């Protein structure tokens, strides 16, 4: 029995692996947090987050970003965050 047999899921989600379907259902239909889903499915918290994001991209019929673009985006956010923090500190000190 698959997830799709027991609960109504978006059609595009059916093309995803069973694990991604389970994560999506547990998170969106049952409201379970990542920390609860991970041990239940025997995977890590980061894997739960990645599977949920992949399922959401599939539902929207969008391509999941490659690892390289996810890393580039994370570095850009971190760099901007550090620049913003430095500006706040500099403003607080020097006015």
What does this protein structure show overall?
- This is RNA polymerase sigma factor 70 region 4 type 2 domain-containing protein.
- InterPro entries: RNA_pol_sigma_r3/r4-like, WH-like_DNA-bd_sf.
- The protein is elongated.
- With 95 residues, it is an all-alpha fold.
- It is 71% helix and 0% strand.
- The model has no long low-confidence stretch (mean pLDDT 87).
- The protein has 5 helices and no strands.
- It has 2 domains: 1-64, Orthogonal Bundle (Arc Repressor Mutant, subunit A), CATH 1.10.10; 65-95.
- α2 crosses α4 and α3 (34-41) crosses α4 (45-59).
The third-level CATH topology of the largest domain is: Arc Repressor Mutant, subunit A
Please give the count of helices. 5
Residue-averaged pLDDT, rounded?
Answer: 87
Q: Choose one word for the global shape.
A: elongated
- Summed up, the domain count is 2
Quaternary organization: single chain
Instruction: Report the span from N to C terminus.
Output: 64 Å
Order of helices and strands: HHHHH
Structural class: mainly alpha
Please write the CATH class name of the largest domain. Mainly Alpha
* Helical proportion, percent range: over 70%
Structural Rg: 18 Å
Q: Quick summary of this structure?
A:
The chain is mostly helical and about 100 residues long. The chain is about 70% helix and about 0% strand.
Layout of strands and helices, then pairs:
Blueprint: H1 3-6, H2 18-29, H3 34-41, H4 45-59, H5 67-94
Features:
95 residues, 5 helices, mainly alpha, RNA_pol_sigma_r3/r4-like, 2 domains, Arc Repressor Mutant, subunit A
